[in-house]
C-alpha cells in the first residue's frame, strides 16, 4: 500500500517516534481498558444480587464512555496541559490533528497515544468509585457525578503528582502508576460518596473469579506501561506487580483460614486487589524482596482494617461500602505510598524518572544505608504529604459534588426502586441461573457474611 502523494514518509513516522514504545503503550492502554470493560463490568454484575446486575454493570460502562468524551474535551489538558494553577492545568480540547500527532511531553510517543493511555486510568478511577455505590445511587445522579468528579477531583490529583508542573511532582513525590492518583483518591471518594448515599445486599458466585482474573492480568499494562518506553524498568514493574499480588492473595487467604477456618473466594479476591493497589506506587522503583514484603503487608493490614477495625469504628459501620473500596483502595493505596517512601531504590528511581537527582527519590532505608538519612526522611514526609492532600481534596470535593447533585436529582434510589431493582430503573433484567439470592442462604454463614446478613421474610439475604 502506497502513501498518499501529500503525505511524506517522515511525517507518518518521524525521527522521534519509537515504534516499539508506541506499540507497547497502545497495548498496555488496551490491557488497562479491559480491566474496566469487561473486567469490572463482569465483577460488578457478579457480586451484586441478580436484580442489580444490569444497573451495576451499566454504571461501569457509562463511566467508561462518559470519561472518554470529557477527557478529550477538557480533562487531559487539565491533567497534563499548560499550567493554570499549581495543581491544575488549563482546560482545553485535545482533538486538534496537529496536537495529536506531535511528540508528547515524555517518551517517544505522539500525544494521541498518551491521551489514550491516560484516559483508561481516568476511567477506571471513576469505575472503582462506582464499586462503593452499587445498587443505591440514582443512575441519573451517577450520570452527573462522573463528569463533575473527573473535572474537579481527578484532574487535580493527576496534575499535582504526574504532570511535571504539578506542585507535588516538583517536590519529588513517588507515585509510579497511581497508588495515590487512582487508588487512594477512588477509595476516599467512594467512601465519601457512599456516606452521602447510603444500603445494599450482595451475593457472590464464581463469575467473580472471571472479573478478578481480568483485573489482575490487565494490571500488566497498568504498571508496565508507565515508564512510557519498552525498558528494563517496565519489565521490573510487571514482575514486581505479580509477585506482590500473589503474595498478598496468599497472605489474605491464610489469615481467613487461620481466624475463620474457611478459605473465602471474596477474601482471596480482596487480597489480590490490595496487592495490586499496594505495589502500584512502587512497581518499578523497588527490588523484588521489597515487593514480597509489600505483598505480606497488603494482605494483612487491609485484612485487619476490614475484618477487625471496620466492626469497631462507628463511621465505618455506618457507611455501606459495597466493594469495600475504603479498605482495598484507600488503605492499600496509602500503605503502598508509605512503603514506597521506605523501600524506593534511588538507582531504580533514576531509571524511571530519568534524572540524576540524589536529593529526591530515595527511600528512607536507602537514605540510612547511604549516610543520607535527611534525604530519606524527606522522601517519606513527601509521601505522607501526598496522602493528606489526596484525602483532603477528595473528601471536600466529593462532598460538594454530592450536595450539589442532590439539589438537582435524588442521590439515592427511591425505596420502590430499591425493592424492584433493574426492572424499575432500566426496564430490563439480567439473566441468571439462580433467583434473586434465595439459593444462597449459606451466604449468611460465610466468613464475610455471618455478622452482617440475615434471611428476610421471603428467603432473601439482607443486611443486618
How many helical elements?
19
CATH topology: Ammonium transporter fold
- The CATH class assignment is Mainly Alpha
Strand line-up across the major sheet: 1-2
Structural class: mainly alpha
Shape: globular
Number of domains: 1
How many extended strands? 4
Order of helices and strands: HHHEEHHHHHHHHHHHHHHHHEE
The gyration radius over C-alpha positions equals 22 Å
How far the N terminus sits from the C terminus, by CA atoms, comes to 66 Å
Biggest sheet details: 2 strands, antiparallel
State the CATH superfamily name.
Ammonium transporter AmtB like domains
CATH architecture: Orthogonal Bundle
Helicity range = 55-70%
How confident is the prediction overall: mean pLDDT? 86
Q: Unreliable segments (pLDDT under 50, ≥5 consecutive)?
A: 200-204, 432-447, 449-464
Taken as a percent bin, the fraction of beta residues is under 5%
Describe this structure in words.
The chain is mainly alpha-helical and 464 residues long. The protein has a single domain (17-416), classed as Ammonium transporter AmtB like domains (Ammonium transporter fold), CATH 1.10.3430. Helix content is 65%, strand content 2%. The chain has 19 helices and four strands. The protein has helices at 9-12, 19-47, 53-80, 97-101, 111-130, 139-162, 167-171, 179-197, 207-224, 232-260, 265-279, 288-307, 314-318, 325-343, 346-353, 364-369, 373-408, 415-420, 422-426, and strands at 83-85, 88-89, 453-455, 461-463. The strands form two sheets. It has a two-stranded antiparallel ribbon with strand order 1-2. The chain has a two-stranded antiparallel ribbon with strand order 3-4. A hairpin with a 5-residue loop joins β3 and β4 (461-463). The longest helix is centred in the C-terminal third of the chain and has 36 residues, at 373-408. The model is unreliable at 200-204, 432-447 and 449-464 (pLDDT under 50).
Amino acid at each position: 500500500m502506497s502513501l498518499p502523494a501529500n503525505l511524506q514518509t517522515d511525517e507518518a513516522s518521524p525521527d522521534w517516534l519509537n515504534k516499539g514504545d508506541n506499540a507497547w503503550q497502545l497495548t498496555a492502554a488496551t490491557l488497562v481498558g479491559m480491566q474496566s470493560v469487561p473486567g469490572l463490568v463482569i465483577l460488578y454484575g457478579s457480586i451484586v444480587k441478580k436484580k442489580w446486575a444490569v444497573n451495576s454493570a451499566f454504571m461501569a460502562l457509562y463511566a467508561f464512555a462518559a470519561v472518554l468524551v470529557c477527557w478529550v474535551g477538557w480533562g487531559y489538558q487539565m491533567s497534563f496541559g499548560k499550567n493554570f494553577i499549581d495543581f491544575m492545568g488549563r482546560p482545553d480540547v485535545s482533538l486538534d490533528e496537529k496536537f495529536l500527532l506531535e511528540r508528547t511531553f515524555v517518551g517517544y510517543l505522539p500525544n494521541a497515544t498518551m491521551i489514550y493511555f491516560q484516559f483508561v486510568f481516568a476511567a477506571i478511577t471513576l469505575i472503582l468509585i462506582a464499586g462503593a455505590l452499587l445498587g443505591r445511587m440514582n443512575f441519573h445522579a451517577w450520570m452527573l457525578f462522573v463528569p463533575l468528579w473527573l473535572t474537579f477531583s481527578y484532574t487535580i490529583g493527576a496534575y499535582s503528582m504526574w504532570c511535571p508542573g504539578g506542585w507535588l511532582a516538583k517536590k519529588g513525590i513517588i507515585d509510579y502508576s497511581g497508588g495515590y492518583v487512582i487508588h487512594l483518591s477512588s477509595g476516599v471518594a467512594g467512601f465519601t460518596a457512599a456516606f452521602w448515599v447510603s444500603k445494599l445486599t450482595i451475593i457472590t458466585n464464581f463469575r467473580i473469579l472471571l472479573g478478578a482474573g481480568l483485573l489482575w492480568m490487565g494490571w500488566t499494562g497498568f504498571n508496565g506501561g508507565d515508564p512510557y518506553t519498552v525498558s528494563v524498568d517496565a519489565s521490573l514493574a510487571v514482575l514486581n506487580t505479580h509477585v506482590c499480588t500473589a503474595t498478598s492473595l496468599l497472605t489474605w487467604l491464610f489469615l481467613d483460614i487461620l481466624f475463620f477456618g474457611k478459605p473465602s473466594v471474596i477474601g482471596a479476591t480482596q487480597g489480590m486487589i490490595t496487592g495490586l493497589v499496594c505495589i502500584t506506587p512502587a512497581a518499578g522503583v523497588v527490588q523484588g524482596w521489597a515487593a514480597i514484603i509489600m505483598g505480606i503487608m497488603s494482605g494483612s493490614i487491609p485484612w485487619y482494617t476490614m475484618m477487625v477495625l471496620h466492626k469497631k469504628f462507628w463511621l465505618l459501620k455506618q457507611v455501606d461500602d459495597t466493594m469495600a473500596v475504603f479498605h482495598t483502595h484507600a488503605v492499600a493505596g496509602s500503605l503502598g505510598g508509605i512503603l514506597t517512601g521506605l523501600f524506593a531504590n534511588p538507582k531504580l528511581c533514576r531509571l524511571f524518572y530519568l534524572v540524576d537527582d540524589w536529593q529526591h527519590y530515595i527511600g528512607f532505608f536507602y537514605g540510612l544505608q547511604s549516610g543520607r538519612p535527611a534525604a530519606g526522611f524527606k522522601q517519606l514526609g513527601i509521601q505522607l504529604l501526598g496522602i493528606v492532600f489526596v484525602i483532603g481534596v477528595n473528601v471536600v470535593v466529593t462532598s460538594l459534588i454530592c450536595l450539589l447533585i442532590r439539589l438537582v436529582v435524588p442521590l439515592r434510589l427511591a425505596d420502590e426502586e430499591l425493592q424492584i431493582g433493574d426492572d424499575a430503573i432500566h426496564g430490563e433484567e439480567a439473566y441468571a441461573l439462580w433467583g434473586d439470592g434465595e439459593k444462597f442462604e449459606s451466604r449468611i454463614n460465610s466468613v464475610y457474611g455471618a455478622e452482617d446478613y440475615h434471611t428476610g421474610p421471603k428467603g432473601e439475604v439482607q443486611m443486618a
